[in-house]
Amino acid sequence: MKLAMIYSFLKQDLAKIEDAVNETIQSENPVLREASGQLLHAGGKRIRPVFVLLAGKFGDYNLERMKAVAVSLELIHTASLVHDDVIDEAELRRGQPTIKSKWDNRIAMYTGDYIFARSLENLSTLDNPRAHQILAKTMVELCLGEIDQIQDKYTVEQNFRNYLRRIKRKTAILIAASCRLGAIAANATKETELALYRYGYFVGMSYQIIDDVLDFTASEKDLGKPAGSDLLHGNITLPVLFSMEDKEFKQQLVDMFKSEEELTSADIEPLLEKIQSNGSIERSLEVSDQYLSKAYQSLSELPNLRAKQTLKGIAKYIGKRRA
């Protein structure tokens, strides 16, 4: 089953959010207008708006209020990817040239800033100071996560705790905020809000772990970028951490990173083969499953609505996705 089938009953509301996203990024400046649309028009799952809408179903669901939150969160996610592509010197995203590739780093950085600003402007239509505070704190954590990632690049002396903190800030906290802010916009109870936040956090952790696994197991066509890109850019993900328990593997990685500026896909191929066969993929998926179990537990605290079954279905899909 495709992911969109799980939440197909939200189709009309999601179409309105998509229109609002495109409207929000419009600019009189032609470069800014085209660059802002470059990544958004390349596709994407729009999973954060889905979490906002589903969370809103546990309270007083009002599409205009949901839209204010959903559009802002999708734009924050998009802006962070634009900046990511500059840091990672990525040429492709979702199978399309990145903004930094089509224009340059300066255009990409200011485009990302512009999308961030539009996101905040859009959320200002929601009269709820607590929602703004939570979003601001989420953005601070995102920035800290990016700094963590930059500092940890090409560094083999890191551990499980470093990795979990990094993916929490990089991915999980924005999905958790999507669930929490959807609940707040719908005036859901505090207990419901926190249960949804926990669900989003655990699902987000699982989502990123599986993303990191797919970097080694999926095809370039499915990824929209070359396989092994994370390792090529010096990012130590969970399969690599497990693989580094083998001293020989770790030494190979240390030697390879000494030439970080000249690394090519061919250089990392021997390590990719080891990661794919040494059990680190299976161990990583087990950790992902542990987070999914906690997500299911969080859902048990919520009333039995259709949205609850849908959230469960999304978690199940995330656990099984292989592309």
Q: What layout of secondary structure does this protein have?
A:
Elements (H helix, E strand, L loop, with lengths): L2 H4 L4 H14 L5 H11 L6 H10 L6 H25 L4 E2 L2 E2 L1 H4 L2 H19 L5 H24 L7 H26 L4 H28 L2 H4 L5 H4 L5 H6 L3 H11 L7 H13 L2 H20 L6 H15 L3
> In one word, what is the shape?
globular
Instruction: List low-confidence stretches.
Output: none
Mean pLDDT, all residues: 93
Main beta sheet strand tally, sense and closure = 2 strands, antiparallel
> Total number of β-strand segments?
2
Number of helices: 17
Pfam families: polyprenyl_synt (PF00348)
Protein name: Heptaprenyl diphosphate synthase component II
Cofactor: Mg(2+)
InterPro entries: GerC3_HepT, Isoprenoid_synthase_dom_sf, Polyprenyl_synt, Polyprenyl_synt_CS
